[in-house]
Amino acid sequence: MSIKHSLVRGAALKAPLPAVFWWLFAGTLLNRLGILVPSFLSLFLAAESHTPATTIGVLVGVWGTGSVLGALGGGALADRTGPRGAIVTSQALALVACAALAGVHAPQALGAAAFLAGCASTVHKPAGAVIVARTIKESEHVRAFGLLYWASNIGAAVSPSVSGFLLESSGYWLIALNVITATAYATIAFRLPGAQPSTAGVTAAKGPESLSGLVAPFRTPATARFLLLSFCLAAIYLQKQSALALDMQAHGLTPHTYGLVISLNGFLIIAAQPLVSRWARRLNVDTQFLLAAALVAVGFGANAVAGQPWTYAAALVVWTAGEILLVPQASAFLVRHAPQGRTGSYQGAYHFVWNLGLVLGAPIGVTVLHTWGSVTLWTGALALGLSVAAVHTVSSLRDRRRRTVPPGASGEFRA
Question: Domains in the chain, please, with CATH?
Answer without folding.
Answer: 17-195 (1.20.1250.20), 212-404 (1.20.1250.20)
